[in-house]
Protein: Permease
Organism: Caballeronia mineralivorans PML1(12)
Amino acid sequence: MRIYERYFARQIYLAFIFILFAFSGLFFFFDLINELNTVGHGNYKFGLAVLRVALQTPSRFYEIIPVAALIAAIYVFAQMAAASEFTIFRVSGLSTGKALRSLLKIGIPMVLLTYVIGEVVGPYSDQLSEKVRLEALGSSVSMNFESGVWVKDTLTARADGEQVTRFVNVGTLNPDTTIADVRIYEFDSLFRLTNVRIAKSGVFQPPGHWKLTDVTDTELIDAPPQAVNPGDALNPVYRAKQVTVPEYSLRSELTPQILSVLLVSPDRMSMFSLFSYIQHLTENHQDTQRYQIAFWRKILYPLAVLVMLVLSLPFAYLHTRAGVVGVKVFGGIMIGMSFQLVNTLFSHIGTLNTWPAPLTAAAPALAYLIVGLIGLRWVDRH
């Protein structure tokens, strides 16, 4: 890096670290206040609430990094403009194009940091945070239905290659991804109910089996032809064969990683987990729109750091008479908050209107990038 680039980088990184931790501390305080309503229930004490909120800090870093980069760069450039430092750089031959390239080069480590937090640290710490809370409360994951969570599982399980479709009802998903109160309804290729299994609990055994305990297996098979009155409508069509076994090994495409989707919202999952779950939903012919948008947001969101830096550069061309440093920083905060608002709003609108997931995820960043380039061209000409 050149001398002026190192100078820019040092100033921006120092301001970025300060703003990142300042905002994270603010969110930590609000998150902790929100947890106080649960403190005292079961074994959930204040210390565990602090631990839970602390484990959510990496995800807060992930959300704040683009805004922190914007505010830090605006602050640094506003200070330079106030002291006429940037004017001296321009007189010395620093063109707008060179300044923009240098700024993007400075933003690359921030982009990489965002990817690392979003893919490695954040998802793991979020799951651990949820487990701390659930274990202390002694409860399972909350579900949308009182009967628990319903998952479709399709696989080729018969010797003749016939496809089997299962609908799995998990009454309780524990923080350690073991399951309880399990009901499995199995259908053949013609969607005729062929088997009902009820298990008290289950634990996953790699690579692709669930070990169920206290299992009641009810098999429905075709009844033999009736010797008397074969045309009688009351003649049984099926007969049930029921057995009870202490343990049963069930081959399944479901994994704890798929079920762990219920522990963390899509926006806080890693790209690998989202991709695996999208594949599972696609194979079972289920709607993937929400998770595809979350997947593309995970790919594109770190690049928002570069967009925010582009938005900050025009502030270097505004002299002190155009506004004090505090006003510029406040403007940066408003721009950053508006980006977060528009980004979230587009995700919901895209889900409702089934817009293409890449377009839905990229549209807010592209819009702000265009605004930043237009602003940069305007200040450069004036």
Q: What stands out?
A: The radius of gyration is 28 Å. Strands lie at 149-156, 163-173, 179-187, 193-205, 209-222, 238-251. Residues 98 and 104 are 10 Å apart (CA to CA).
